[in-house]
Design goal:
heterodimer; A: 1% strand; globular; B: 219 residues; 7 helices
Chain lengths: 491, 219
């Protein structure tokens, strides 16, 4: 198993899904593809003799511990999402989704996974940019599968806003390249955009140019990562996309863009030797949490509620990266992982809710516990987990991030965060109890899908277990990753 | 080609580039707007070619040819097909009138010369005079995206921003490495096509392509 194979699997299966054949077979190919990439990636990452850093394709691609964490994240959420889509998209018996449309959906789904894997595996910053723009292009069609007015509007905003954002990021990359070219020796032309090369030469890069570049990168990739005030596409796209796609968008796409910011953050801190980029990250992170709070408290649409909570959690991850230090980086990475699993679980259950109640309005959803006990339990526990309730994993990572803030003496930011987080908690508790308790209006009319239900159960087990116990190899990997990000070992 | 001729040629081409972007902002009809974009890209390709030949940078020649083929021929051609299929002949509706947007554009040119003046951090070796032009092209693109109502002119604005960034790359670093440059071209082409498809979808669902009809999603 090498880097190329991790990348080839989703690309090959994307085209296999396009082959016209009965829906049953397309569905099998679709789900087998996701499972195969996941299994392959797990074996590759956890191979006992895996070196710290693997290069491929003339050093343009690379896998260090940091990318390994994200590869695991993409493929694991990918396989859950594909299994859920196997019931949600393929199980639907309506006329809106023709077989050709479903094949196209499967194609773009795998293409989307491929572009995200390429993003996290690229060492060449230019290729990373191309891949991030690719994620937008591949997922635009996934956002509007049903061709409704509202989903077209959401997809259009997503395309335009993210493309403008990413264009600004390109300017940042040109600036980095410019500062590298000024110091280059002969014969290094091919390496000048490689992250590992730039990092080894960080001392010679012009700090003023890198600071300017980081601002553009933060705005550009920040748009994609859903940092306020560039997040306006996010609630629209997340709420209009079908549930499995929302789970991927929120769980892993935002995380991939955050990895893009992190790479430049590491580079900028090394080159400027100051906390300039870290301070910016803390500022925009706290701002994102603050912006999301009123929308969470007064939300009328449960999918938008989850979307704004993604803005909040990406903000928290940015704050953790900004605080830095061993605790901050480790906490932020753990937070990204925990958020990916918890939020995708919640988006899966939003798919169930939409099935059951045929509406996205919180007002009209009542008595989920009585209607479908399993769904009620998953949604309620998931909401508690995402709000940061103690036994669940998100609490652990939020705690680590705040502890990092206190030990870095950022008291104002921490105090603000504590107040905002308790407001978020109130908001989630209010909405979740409103939706799950009470007596439902109509009796349940639903054919059960074993596949979709088992995805919910699997997700619930993951977030429950990781709150108490992070498996040894994975913890090692996370610590390696935070060392790559300049965090150093945790005592 | 002697150096002094090359220098005055690039100056002339730079001037034409600015005129083309003003033409784009000044044209009330989408057809004229697309033609102006094609002209803009043509001069961009010419500038790139001249820079490539005077500085002997071979891979920049490939970029110049790609710009010529994709941005002056393929993309404008696709866009003409789209407006023909949609049957748009009307004037572009704008939130501000054209004389005012031209006034803003002149202002933006001054701003871009001011922010990139000498003594600031960007001092490329030989081609400094193009940097304010690149920055102002990016500004023009943003002006177009924010003031025009038709979905298709937003895409044109985005492409104008991309042209500005390309010019920035060419003047500051003789362009990106070829592999990256080709990837960016591919992305721009695919983005243009996908947005074109979405313009059709918007037309089908909303019976117009005015973006201010799309206000359902809030809060």
């Amino acid at each position: 198993m090498t880097i190329d194979k991790v990348l080839w699997a989703p690309l090959v299966f994307a085209f296999l899904c396009l082959v016209p054949c009965p829906k049953r077979i397309t569905r099998l190919v679709f789900m087998a593809g996701a499972a195969l990439s996941a299994v392959g990636a797990w074996f590759f990452v956890f191979a006992p003799d895996r070196p710290e850093c693997v290069f491929a394709f003339g050093k343009n691609l690379m896998m260090d511990a940091l990318s390994a964490v994200f590869v695991l994240l993409i493929t694991s959420v990918g396989v859950l999402s594909a299994a859920y889509a196997g019931g949600y998209i393929f199980g639907k018996e309506d006329a809106v989704l023709s077989p050709a449309k479903i094949r196209r959906y499967a194609f773009f789904f795998h293409l989307f996974l491929f572009t995200m894997l390429l993003t996290v595996l690229s060492n060449n910053l230019g290729i990373m940019w191309i891949a991030i723009e690719g994620t937008t292009l591949a997922s635009a069609f996934l956002v509007n599968v049903d061709d409704k007015r509202s989903s077209i509007e959401a997809a259009w905003k997503y395309l335009i806003l993210c493309s403008v954002g990413i264009a600004l990021a390109l300017f940042g990359i040109i600036l980095v390249y410019y500062s590298a070219i000024a110091q280059a020796a002969a014969g290094e032309g091919e390496l000048l955009l490689d992250w590992t090369f730039l990092l080894s030469r960080a001392g010679q890069l012009d700090p003023r140019v890198l600071r300017l570049a980081f601002i553009f990168i933060l705005v550009g990739y920040g748009t994609k990562a859903g940092l306020a005030p560039f997040h306006s596409w996010l609630p629209d796209a997340h709420s209009q996309a079908p549930a499995p796609v929302s789970a991927l968008l929120s769980g892993v796409l935002l995380s991939c863009a955050t990895l893009g910011i992190l790479r430049f953050h590491i580079l900028t801190s090394a080159a400027t030797g100051s906390s300039f980029s870290g301070t910016l990250l803390v500022f925009f992170g706290v701002l994102s949490v603050a912006v999301s709070v009123p929308f969470i408290l007064e939300q009328k649409d449960y999918k938008r509620l989850l979307a704004y909570s993604s803005v909040e959690h990406m903000g928290l991850a940015a704050v953790g990266l900004g605080f830095g230090g061993a605790l901050g980086i480790y906490g932020a990475l753990l937070h990204i992982v925990n958020h990916a699993f918890t939020k995708s679980l919640l988006f899966f259950s939003s798919g169930h809710l939409l099935y059951l109640f045929q509406t996205k309005e919180i007002e009209k959803v009542r008595g989920v516990f009585r209607k479908r006990a399993l769904l009620g339990i998953v949604f309620f526990l998931g909401a508690l987990a995402i709000a940061g309730m103690p036994p669940f994993s998100i609490f652990v990572s939020e705690f680590l991030i705040l502890a990092a803030g206190f030990s870095a003496k950022k008291f104002v930011a921490c105090a603000l965060l504590l107040i905002l987080l308790s407001l978020v908690f109130i908001g989630f508790l209010k909405h979740a109890s409103q939706m799950t308790l009470g007596v439902p209006e109509n009796p349940a009319v639903l054919k059960k899908s074993l596949l979709m239900d088992s995805v919910l159960v699997a997700g619930l087990i993951v977030i429950l277990v990781t709150g108490f116990y992070v498996p040894g190899p994975f913890q090692q990997l996370l610590q390696q990753a935070s060392r790559v990000a300049g965090g150093g070992p945790i005592s | 080609m002697t150096d002094s001729i090359a220098v005055s040629l690039t100056h002339f081409l730079g001037m034409m580039l600015v005129i083309a972007s003003f033409w784009m902002l000044a044209s009330p009809q989408i057809g004229a707007c697309i033609r102006a974009y094609a002209t803009h890209s043509f001069f961009l390709a010419a500038i790139t070619a001249v820079i490539a030949s005077t500085n002997h940078v071979e891979h920049l020649m490939v970029s110049a040819v790609l710009t010529l083929v994709l941005k002056t021929i393929v993309i404008p051609h696709v866009f003409f097909r789209i407006i023909l299929r949609l049957g748009i002949r009307k004037e572009i509706e704008s939130y501000i009138n054209i004389p005012f947007s031209l006034l803003l554009a002149v202002l933006l040119v001054f701003v871009s010369f001011y922010v990139t003046r000498e003594g600031k951090i960007l001092n490329p070796v030989s081609l400094g005079e193009f940097i304010p032009l690149a920055v102002s092209t990016v500004f023009f693109g943003m002006l177009m995206m924010t003031t025009r109502k038709k979905a298709i002119s937003q895409v044109l604005g985005l492409l104008l921003i991309e042209n500005g960034l390309f010019l920035m790359g060419v003047t500051m670093t003789f362009g990106m490495p070829l592999l990256v440059e080709i990837g960016i071209f591919f992305d721009v082409l695919v983005a243009g096509l996908i947005m074109g498809i979405f313009v059709f979808k918007i037309r089908g669902a909303f019976e117009s392509i005015n973006v201010d009809d799309m206000t359902a999603l809030k809060g």
